Amino acid sequence: MRGQHLPAAVLHPDVELAALVDAETSRAEKLRAAYGLNCKTTNDYRQLLTEVDAVVNALPNHLHFPVNLAAMQAGVHVLSEKPLAVNATEAKTCCDMAEQNGVTLAVGMSRRFQAGHQLMELLLAREELGKVREYDWESGSAWSWKASSGFYFSREQAGGGVFIDIGVHVLDCLFHWIGPVTRFEYQDDNWGSGIEANAILHTLHDAPHGEVRGRVRLSRTFTLKNRLLVTCEQGTASLDEDSPEEVAIHKRNGRQGLSMTLHPEAAPKGSAFYLQLDNFVQSVRGHATPLVSGRDALAVAEFVEGCYASAKRIPEPWSEIPQLETATGGSR
Predict the structure, then answer these.
(1) CA distance 80 to 58
(2) CATH architecture assignment, domain 111-268
(3) Average pLDDT by stretches of 10, the chain with 332 residues
């Protein structure tokens, strides 16, 4: 995340960068030099908790909980990368600690700050295409993320695979736009001892305007459509991950169809990560509230945990071991 969080912090006029923390201090030193920063570098965040007002926690997933908790216990505000924790129990403890100590806890769901996602939220809330009926969201490609460790491939350290990684972004938006899921069926390709590379989720929402059905498909092994398609009474709205600042609309008007692309009149003032950091800063100052709170992230964590607990295998007939037949033709 150094390519996103750090540039946002450097550019923000109200942020004074006090330190860079990395288990390998040489990496922190290289970053400090690359950005021409005048700040500390250390491999022990505990040394800093009495010196700072806030932290951005972009550590591997299993370190989100202990670092978040230690910071909030010290009265330090936290912007935590997603997921808030690798399980719902730890996520709830973080939320309780933030409320107990009166500190801000925001969670890094950067997609919520992209113009296209905010336009989609507005369209659905205003029912510009009528009531939502169903949606289909596909997100995936062959794994290419650069990482300094192998934590992504450890269930203990990551909490899961593609579902807890990319899926939390998708679920956060869907819960916010449509409401909680009342029924679901979840499948993945985890055989029981590792993490999933592919996941399929079918949902039913009991939304304020009626039932909404949905399908989510995620992959780390091959490229999907990388698009959200929402079907409403009077047309469709789609959000392409390659064009996150706009929404495409196709509206039915009798026999005549109308297609258009919506985008903001003015370009966003900064990247999604910059806007996310600014929302955090304003929340710490008491001028705003986190767009994605700890409780929002907790609801997603609880749902992810429920999906993992009830997971069914994606059918893989090519991997099944055929039954052996006896000499008399019967199976054994």
Answers:
(1) 7
(2) 2-Layer Sandwich (3.30)
(3) 84 96 94 95 96 97 98 98 97 98 98 96 95 97 83 92 97 96 97 93 90 97 97 96 95 84 85 97 98 98 98 87 64 46
